[in-house]
Amino acid sequence: MDATKAKSIIDIHCHTAGIGAGNSGCFISPAMRRSWRYRVFLKAFGVTEQELLSEGDGLVMRRTAETLAVSERVTAAVILAMDGAVDEKGELDRSQTEMFIPNEFVAAETAKYPNLLFGASINPLRRDALDRLEWAAANGAVLVKWLPSIQHFDPADRRLVPFYQKLRELGLPLLTHTGSEKSFTATRNELADPERLRLPLSLGVNVIAAHAASNGRNQGESNHRRFLRLCGEYQNLYADISALTQLNRLTHLRRLLKHPELFGRLLYGTDMPIPNTAAVTPLGFPNRLSPRRMLQIASIPNPWDQDVALKEALGVPEQIFFNANSIIRL
């Protein structure tokens, strides 16, 4: 890898959305569309439902790429597909899926923009999961993203061993949600217990714990403590720092940064479009930053530049912003 790429900041945790417009194959469940979250997310992505119906779901990624292109700090972003729950036949179960963003759509759209990277999502209980994984790798996927609490599978299920072995063979890291999930209307948060990641870790998969298991509890113990214990046992366990500046997680980043032994395994991420919502504001840190500094950061127009500046001000060392270059498959 050349020196320029090694010093590029890559956001490894960026979402997209779609309602099925333009034959994208995306869908959002009726329950989710009735939820207040739906309106918030559309606004955060900078689109309206009418615009999507007129121009197609690819509009979200086009605007993401345009906004990212004028960032002075962040070079590229991994755009994450979102697979759904599956039925007993290993086929997509729409009745149990709140949001579906197919790999084919994300792969095709990200290929149009040099600053967007393809993050695949494959429910490992799909009948053809291994074929889908091979396809994703062949079509430029840089990682595989899971959200077990809404995709309804257990990462500790030994039926997933062949999937994990294929991930390792292909050199694809697994980015999987850890901790409580509150962005959907129904979740099984016990499935995002970091302790359930022992199986892929033991098989040598590079696992990235999204949000560093910063919230929630399992078996009477904080998920964050369970995550830290695993870090001590497995050098192939990483984490991203996305969402850790949200108002409901104000102490989480500071707590994580008390572990400098992990700095080589922490990766930069935003959880975009969350930084475009009221859940994240530089004005939420009066106990850490001066009023002048908070206002200065809040005045930065580009959301990626603002996010980097806020995390720098809160003590994130330079190394963490560049770690993704050596982890994800470019």
Automatic annotation (TrEMBL):
Keywords, sorted A to Z: Lyase
Matching Pfam families: Amidohydro_2
Domain Amidohydrolase-related: 80-278
Name assigned to this protein: Amidohydrolase family protein
